[in-house]
UniProtKB/TrEMBL annotation:
Pfam families: DUF4901, SLH. Signal peptide: none annotated. InterPro entries: SLH_dom, YcdB/YcdC_rep_domain. Keywords: Signal. The keyword Signal applies. Residues 612-673 form the SLH domain. This is SLH domain-containing protein.
Length: 740
């Protein structure tokens, strides 16, 4: 393949994955901290792969699918590899207008055989993929299986039990204007047992088109596997885990996307740091390999028993600049430091934060980032070391021990963020040394009421030479912490865990010298979930035990399908299906919420960092519909006014106005004099709404009732469900993504 030639380094992800998408469940003992993956480009002269070779491979995998593309339509990127995987990848993509619609596609081929690693494509015609779907999930699964069979050595791949279904994101609603998509995850198997951390994901639209593929698999020609004939029985391993099972209280911080608020729950979680049991010898699987002894439970141990003084109170802009120059300085022969900008903002805790944007310029280009300081304390709350990307490390440097790295991490925290440390504990999970980045990753959990907090940690990474590689302090402002006094007993929670315990058999590679051997491991699951917790105040599982609870079935003579679909998509919330009446008039506030959840991902936050606004005097930031209302104003659905009566019943002419505004046709609707309304009750329509009513009716969004529009009549839940689905389809087919 030729020698690698580094032309530039591109950061493809941040050093840590933190914040609103943190899982609500306790991190497993052997789950590694997320680290950055560095992409390194390869000079075109160093590869023999040509554009025509990539195009031929594309057509071989997708015969007749992309015949509408010419060679000029396809763009080829530079070859690249990663620091942790030196196999060269090649990208080819297109962006073209077809039938007046913008379409895009991208493909990544890997290695000498140009194996398809990932692929994405959005077809121009998605009408058959909108509700109601042309293809069912079962139909789509057959299509995915046939596509998988095109690839060599996939005969032993099996569909993962929890790897199917239409897309959903952290219980957020999916824009219904997007096509319905089914995702299927296949894993390679050996001896009928799945190989962990390897998968082949295929996404199929409801019109039968394959639009996304991602493959994360490794060659198994040199791999060795434990024998399944020698494994211990499930009964023996279940008894072993149950006998050593312990639970403890934790606080978990979860994020509500609709309200932009953080919620805290008191939970019971497993207290032993193992992730499985070796199926052959019964040893415990830990982050650092297998152990014959049950891993010891780590208890909360604060980094400091007393509060420490802040590093520097009330830093000025000038002091921040001087500090940045000193803190970020490098050998001038290696790079030139450039402070680009210092920004001052207020975070969600009401604290003033300095964000320092900087760039290192060097021979082959430059690389930039930012780090943050707390103005009141002068302390670093976010930092990531970029110098390792252009300063070569000494390969002969001795790697410090895990304990020494932990001590260095604590020293750095006391040096750069001293006023925080008394609220945090030493890590409760063991750290690992990442093979390719040579870094130790530590997570210091916050402590409240002597209980560790999951989802509010200080993250620190330490280089093998003892240097500070990254630091991130979450420290979320939370006033209400559930009382420990209301928690169920630990014995009761432990018994629930024992009863729900099941085992999942899989092959897994361990960190060690033998990179080609796969151990046979029993992993504990609770109700089918590898990570699950019990709400300590209610005794219920945070993730539904066993299969996902069935969505309520709603009966209605004309809108049953639409109503149930909205429920299944987390758009319509019904507390008691037995008493729900779909013919009830819906309030403006509830209708607005349903409409926005239909057209967006259901995230109505982003007004908590000093940019709060209030469009209506009666809807302030403490109102439960504040985020919904302000998002509607941003989208143009509502216009700021004195008041917005969320409890008033929505009328049909008001709904027509909302729909036409969503479609961006308000200017046309305002010319009411050009429209002729042929309804029998046209005279009852408010002239201010006549243009909106005319357009909504002509587009088939809202039906007349026996030739009467009934403009001032209530909009029922059934009416809203049917018309909302029509609106979503109109947006999707028109490729109108102004808001989404």
């Amino acid at each position: 393949m030729g020698k690698f030639k580094k032309l530039g380094i591109i950061l493809t992800s941040t050093a840590f994955t933190v914040g609103v998408l943190s899982p609500i469940s306790q991190a497993s003992a052997n789950v590694k901290e997320s680290s950055e993956r560095i992409e390194i480009q390869v000079a075109s002269t160093e590869t023999k792969v040509t554009k025509s070779m990539l195009i031929n491979k594309l057509h071989a995998i997708f015969p007749d699918k992309f015949n509408f593309l010419t060679e000029k339509d396809l763009n080829v990127g530079s070859g690249h590899y990663y620091t942790d995987d030196t196999t060269i990848r090649y990208d080819i993509s297109f962006h073209k207008t077809v039938n007046g619609k913008e379409i895009y596609g991208s493909f990544t081929f890997k290695g000498d055989d140009l194996e398809l690693e990932n692929f994405y494509y959005q077809p121009s015609d998605i009408s058959d993929a909108m509700y109601p779907a042309k293809y069912s999930e079962a139909d789509a699964q057959k299509i995915a299986k046939e596509f998988l069979a095109k690839f060599p050595n996939t005969e032993n791949y099996k569909l993962q039990e929890n790897g199917t279904g239409s897309d959903s994101y952290f219980n957020m609603s999916r824009p219904l204007s997007q096509p319905i998509a089914y995702s299927f995850v296949y894993s390679p198997t050996q001896n009928g047992v799945a190989i962990s951390e390897q998968y082949f994901t295929i996404e199929v639209l409801a019109n039968g088109e394959i639009t996304s593929v991602y493959r994360n698999t490794e060659p198994l020609s040199k791999a060795t596997f434990d024998s399944v004939e020698q494994k211990k029985t499930e009964a023996d391993i279940l008894a072993q885990i149950r006998d050593n099972l312990a639970v403890e209280l934790r606080y978990t911080v979860d994020y509500d996307f609709e309200t932009d608020q953080r919620k805290v729950k008191l939970v019971y979680a497993p207290a032993i740091g193992f992730n499985g049991v070796h199926a052959l010898n019964g040893q415990w699987q830990t982050v650092n390999g297998f152990s014959a002894q049950v891993p010891k439970v780590k208890r909360v141990e604060k980094l400091s028993s007393q509060p420490l003084e802040p590093r520097k109170k009330g830093m000025t802009l000038a002091e921040v600049e001087e500090f940045a120059k000193s803190f970020l300085k490098v050998d001038p022969d290696k790079a030139k430091l450039q402070i680009d900008m210092i920004d001052e903002r207020e975070n969600q805790n009401g604290e003033t934060i300095y964000s320092v944007n900087y760039t290192y310029m060097y021979d082959n280009g430059g690389i930039g980032s930012s780090f943050e300081l707390n103005k009141a304390t002068g302390e670093i709350i976010q930092y990531h070391d970029l110098t390792r990307d252009f300063v070569k490390s000494n390969d002969k440097t001795t790697t410090i021990s895990k304990d020494a790295a932990l001590n260095k991490a604590i020293e750095y925290l006391k040096q750069w963020a001293p006023s925080y440390v008394h609220n945090y504990s030493k890590p409760l999970e063991d750290a690992v040394l990442a093979d390719y980045s040579k870094e130790y990753y530590f997570s210091f959990p916050r402590v409240v009421n002597d209980i560790a907090v999951v989802g509010d940690e200080i993250s620190v990474s330490i280089g093998s030479d003892g240097s500070l590689r990254s630091l991130y302090i979450s420290n979320q402002k939370i006033d209400n912490w559930p009382s420990v006094d209301k928690a169920i007993s630990a014995d009761k929670a432990k018994e629930s865990y024992r009863e729900a315990l099941k085992l999942q058999l899989q092959y897994a590679k361990q960190s060690g010298e033998d990179k080609n051997h796969y151990d046979l491991v029993y992993s504990p699951t609770y109700g089918g979930n590898l990570l699950n917790q019990i709400d300590a105040t209610t005794g219920e599982w945070l993730i539904n035990i066993e299969d996902k609870k069935e969505q309520p079935l709603i009966s209605h003579p004309t809108a049953a399908k639409e109503l149930n679909y909205l429920v299944s998509q987390n758009v319509l919330e019904i507390k008691d299906p037995a008493t729900f009446n779909a013919d009830t008039g819906v309030t403006k506030g509830e209708a607005l919420k349903i409409l926005l959840k239909s057209l967006t991902y259901g995230y109505f936050g982003g007004y908590g960092e000093g940019d709060e606004k209030q469009s209506f005097t009666n809807i302030d930031k403490n109102h439960p519909l504040y985020g919904v209302v302000e998002e509607a104003v941003r989208m143009g659905v509502l216009k700021p006014a004195d008041r917005f009566d969320v409890d008033a019943t929505l009328t049909r002419q008001e709904l027509a106005e909302w729909y036409i505004r969503v479609l961006g046709l308000e200017k046309a609707a305002k010319h009411s004099d050009i429209y002729k309304l042929n309804f029998a009750d046209a005279g009852s329509i408010d002239p201010a709404y006549s243009g909106y009513v005319a357009l909504a009716s002509a587009m088939g969004l809202i039906d007349a009732q026996q030739n009467s529009f009934n403009a001032t009549e209530k909009v029922s839940y059934a009416d809203l469900a049917v018309s909302t689905m029509r609106l979503a389809k109109a947006i999707g087919e028109g490729n109108n993504s102004r808001f989404f």
